[in-house]
Amino acid sequence: MALYEHVFLARQDMSAQQVDALVEQYKGVIEANGGKVGRIENWGLKSLTYRIQKNRKAHYALMDIDAPAAALHEMERQMRINEDILRYMSIAVEAHEEGPSAMMQKRDRDDRPRRDGDRPDRGPREGGFADRGPRPERGDREDRPRRPREDRI
What residues have CB less than 8 Å from 8, skipping those under 6 apart? Predict the structure, then answer.
């Protein structure tokens, strides 16, 4: 059997319990066709980059699947019919990741650069701007030769 990571987006007006019911429904489809579902993550309601079927947000869910291709095709067929599913994507993987996915990992606030200008990669700055030294002289505008413009000719 092949290993897959499957993510789907459900409509924004569904409740979290309804999304969990969808996950259980599709888990049953996979198990009925000889597969098994490992990790299940509900990523919650997130904003979409662009509107999909008049929805600005969607409930995201991830499933790690170990199943034959026929079981995955049957689940995707049922997702195409369901009006509550906005999008889905299945990806074949070599092995499932251990632990929480990247979406569920809490990013450590100490790793991000601070807003006060103390950046570890550039060093402290004075006055908000890096010192580049004095500006070069531009000279007078009258001394520079003028180029003919096409609208003047």
Answer: 22, 26, 60, 61, 79, 85, 87, 88, 89
The residue to which tokens 């531009």 are assigned: 138
Can you give the residue ranges of every domain in the chain?
Answer: 2-93
At 77-115, the pLDDT tens digits run 999 999 999 999 999 998 888 877 778 776 555 556 666
Residue 52 corresponds to which tokens in the numbers above?
């999909």
Q: Which residues pair with 41 in a beta bridge?
A: 62
pTM for this predicted structure: 0.66
Q: Which two tokens stand for residue 106?
A: 């809490």
Task: Quote the CA–CA distance of 55 and 12 in Å, as a whole number.
Answer: 7
Where does 2-93 sit in CATH, by number? 3.30.70.60
Which strands form 55-67's sheet, in the order they lie side by side? 36-52, 55-67, 2-11, 85-93
Contact 66, 35 (CB under 8 A): yes
